[in-house]
Write a structure and sequence with these properties.
Elements: E1 3-9, H1 15-28, E2 31-38, H2 43-48, E3 54-58, H3 59-62, H4 68-74, H5 77-80, H6 83-94, E4 104-108, E5 112-114, E6 121-122, E7 125-129, H7 136-146, E8 160-164, H8 165-179, H9 183-190, H10 201-211, E9 216-219, E10 223-224, H11 231-236, H12 239-247, E11 250-252, H13 261-274
Length: 275
Amino acid sequence: MKINALLSTSHINDLEAWKFCHKKNLENFDADRYIVVVPDKQAKIFIKNTSKIYECVSESDFFPEFSKSDLSLLLSPIHKKKAGWYYQQFLKLKSFDYFDSSSTILFLEGDSFLTKNFKFFEGASLLMIKSTEHHQPYFTTNKNLLGFDKQVNFSFISQALPVRAVWGKNLLRDIELKFNTKWYLAIVKSLDPSDSIAFSEYELMGNYFHFQKYDYQSSDQIFYRNGGLFFKSLLASDQKYYDLVQKNSIIAIEKADTSSLFIRLKRKLQRYIYD
């Protein structure tokens, strides 16, 4: 089995991580296509810092009918401050429009890289990594959308999620049939009003796939989120780097960053220019 597309979203805040991670993904994982979707103003700098093997696509080209500004106008005050965060999740759901039903997509967070330990299938089944995260507003939103509660005793939230495109197409179709409107408008209407963080695309997809009895297996593969604590080690490929990649299937460059003062100042300037 092969992944037809490895798809990420990214932002200037994660550019240094992206520069490192996307190269590791090219080394460690075979896919037909590699795609990253980024904000319009940031497309040129991402193209400059991304391998030509990757398709670097601006958000407006990827999702022309619904922009982050459109989303922000529709969100309630409690959700509006997280408009960019919500929009990145909508971009992943939008990707189902771009692939035929026989395709398999791997969603991968832009600040993360796969090690050679990563597995996305077992037999004919896709492997979805389990985690222990639980945030009730996600499931309140999901119930508003789909009519059912959390389906499993674990979380689907991790750094990567393999999905068959037909499953995602069915999910968006069912939402639109229920609400008689576009799926993204239905999600906005369904957000739990009690919390600013009220939606997880991975929890939506995973619980829908489970409810529909699609062919997946949960996986105990280990992912490590605090790679930012050891960013210098990752860049240097020193012993700490080898220890991390031997023990984990995915490493994310999250948490505090030990990169140089120059890089931190450079990030602030980039955010000022490109946001």
